[in-house]
Write a structure and sequence with these properties.
Shape of chain A: elongated
CATH class of the domain at 11-99 and 169-248 in chain B: Alpha Beta
Low-confidence stretches of chain B: none
Largest sheet of chain A: none
Helix content of chain B: 25-40%
Number of helices of chain B: 9
InterPro entries (chain A): Permease_MalE (IPR030802)
Protein name (chain A): ABC transporter permease
Oligomer: heterodimer
Helix content of chain A: over 70%
Keywords (chain A): Membrane, Transmembrane, Transmembrane helix
Strand content of chain A: under 5%
Mean pLDDT of chain B: 90
Largest interface: A-B, 15 and 26 residues
Organism (chain A): Sphingobacterium arenae
CATH topology of the domain at 11-99 and 169-248 in chain B: Rossmann fold
Number of strands of chain B: 10
Pfam family, one (chain A): MlaE
Radius of gyration of chain A: 21 Å
Distance between the termini of chain A: 43 Å
CATH superfamily of the domain at 11-99 and 169-248 in chain B: P-loop containing nucleotide triphosphate hydrolases
Low-confidence stretches of chain A: none
Strand content of chain B: 25-35%
Number of helices of chain A: 9
Order of helices and strands of chain A: HHHHHHHHH
Radius of gyration of chain B: 18 Å
Largest sheet of chain B: 6 strands, mixed
Distance between the termini of chain B: 19 Å
Order of helices and strands of chain B: EEEHEEHEHHHEHEHEEHH
Chain lengths: 252, 257
């Protein structure tokens, strides 16, 4: 038991050191702009096809599932308002984060872990290059900036899916649909979405780089790191969602 | 092929390992080890797999910290330096990894440019290109400049790995099993390259190996790690002129069997 607690405390100390190291390197020059842009491309642009499909399906299915409940009260005209609030406030950031945890998290975890196994990270260190600046900071900055961008996109494509679901049964123009959507959404909903997306993006980047960077050696370590990156990112995203919901409801 | 005799200044010590111990859990890898590397010499560290040879050069380069003792490199105590000081010192130490450790997402050119542009930020594009081409020519692989590491053979990867360390013009080279996994002819090429680097760049080197042909061809002096300690040192002949049962099979396997 004592040994387990000791191990846990050592792990916390290592996470703290990793965080401090990231913060120091992220703000201090020289900056790795080229690598940040490359990572944004890898994380953001290459996720568009998967994110598009998922966002569309979520919007379409959520709208379809919500219809019967509103139909009972003859309130199907409220569907655009309902789905817009649900998608913007909760679904878009959560779906984006979960998809990114799977796609981006595993990619970062496996990549850093295999660099660790093949001593590429050691090679960077011994050549006087700071691997935290080049490998860690760039990836965390890229996830923290690209997840919000993807989140806005998912919200848009999800609403489009919602519109197609509604228009299959009701006669509603896209203009009328989006007018109702924007009437229902307040600035605080957008704010809540951005806060969530930034927090989730940072979490996915941080958790994935951490498990990849400190993975055990050997090919088994690569698989474990990819797996741990996804599991820890998803787990933390759900915990954070719970905390953010509480916090935002307190703020009002 | 015998090693050419080079002038070694024994008053000028570039690496001094003082009473260093290193353990991993209950496994004591190095026990109170002492070692000196003189300016301009090629020192070969021999020993069986798992005896701590690679650990030794990782301690010297600051990748690992000793449990006990001090490591002096070019006048600095490596295990007492902070991150920034260590990074500055590392620019003067080249490390050739056993598996080359080339960045597999980058071309050969990008691999070579990587340490250069990050350590010498005032270089112009023309100067960077010149340095890259020069060092690639030095290892005889000018034609590989735009290839990916996955397109290279084991020997070529080793050469590029060495070229990447040479681009910073280090004072010290650390080679970790430079001939491991290579065919005999490629081993000869790599051994010649190690000697060429010593002459051309005036480096002092530690070569970790269990390949006695390599040791004989590149080493000015040799030490042998036995049970976590350097128990034998001298020339190749001095090391193996013994009835020690821990040493003899090593020679027999390489040259008799």
């Amino acid at each position: 038991m004592g040994r387990k607690i000791e191990k846990l405390l050592i792990e916390f100390a290592r996470i703290h050191r990793f965080m401090m190291s990231f913060l120091r390197e992220a703000v201090s020059p020289p900056y790795e702009f080229k690598e940040i842009i490359r990572q944004c491309y890898e994380i953001g642009w290459k996720s568009f096809p998967l994110i598009s499909l998922t966002g569309f399906i979520v919007g379409f299915v959520f709208t379809k599932q919500s219809r019967p409940s509103l139909e009972e009260f003859g309130a199907t005209s409220w569907l655009p308002a309902l789905i817009s609030i649900a998608i913007v406030r909760a679904l878009a950031p959560l779906v984006t984060a979960l998809i990114a945890s799977g796609k981006v998290g595993s990619q970062i975890g496996a990549e850093l872990s295999s660099m660790n196994v093949t001593e590429q990270i050691d090679a960077m260190e011994v050549s006087g290059t700071n691997p935290t600046k080049f490998l860690i900071s760039t990836r965390i900055i890229a996830t923290t900036t690209m997840i919000p961008v993807l989140c806005f996109y998912v919200a848009g494509i999800g609403l489009l899916g919602g519109y197609l679901s509604i228009s299959a049964k009701d006669d509603i123009s896209i203009l009328a649909f989006f007018t109702q959507v924007f009437e229902a959404i307040a600035a605080k909903d957008i704010f809540a979405m951005v806060i969530r997306a930034v927090v989730f993006g940072f979490t996915i980047g941080f958790a994935s780089t951490y498990v990849g960077y400190y993975s055990s050696k050997g090919t088994e370590g690569v698989g474990k790191a990819a797996n741990a990156a996804v599991v820890s990112s998803m787990f933390l995203v759900f915990i954070e969602e719970l905390l953010i919901v509480q916090l935002l409801s307190l703020i009002g | 092929m015998e090693k050419k005799i080079v002038n070694i200044n024994q008053d000028d010590v570039v690496i001094r390992v003082d009473n260093v111990s290193k353990s991993f859990g209950d496994l004591h890898v190095l026990r109170d080890v002492d070692l000196q590397l003189f300016n301009g010499e090629n020192l070969v560290v021999l020993g069986r797999s798992g005896t701590g040879k690679s650990v030794l050069i990782k301690l010297i380069s600051g990748l690992l910290k000793p449990d006990k003792g001090n490591i002096h490199v070019l006048g600095e105590v490596v295990n007492q330096l902070d991150e920034r000081e260590l990074r500055n010192l590392r620019q003067r130490i080249g490390f050739s990894f056993q598996n080359s450790a080339l960045y597999d997402s980058m071309t050969v050119r990008e691999n070579l440019e990587f340490p250069l542009v990050r350590n010498k930020r005032n270089l112009t594009r023309t100067e960077i290109n010149k340095e890259v081409e020069e060092v690639l020519e030095g290892v005889g692989l000018s034609q590989a400049i735009n290839q990916m590491p996955s397109e290279l053979s084991g020997g070529q990867r080793k050469r590029i790995g060495i070229a990447r360390t040479l681009i910073l013009r280090p004072d010290i080279m650390l080679y970790d099993e430079p001939t491991a996994g290579l065919d005999p002819l490629t081993c000869l090429d790599i051994n010649s390259l190690i000697n060429q680097v010593q002459e051309q760049y005036q480096t002092s080197s530690i070569i970790i190996t269990h390949d006695l042909s390599c040791a004989k061809m590149v080493g000015d002096r040799m030490v042998m790690l036995l049970d976590g300690k350097f128990e034998r040192q001298g020339t190749f002949e001095e090391i193996f002129d013994t009835d020690d049962e821990r040493v003899k099979p090593f020679y027999d396997y390489n040259f008799i069997d």
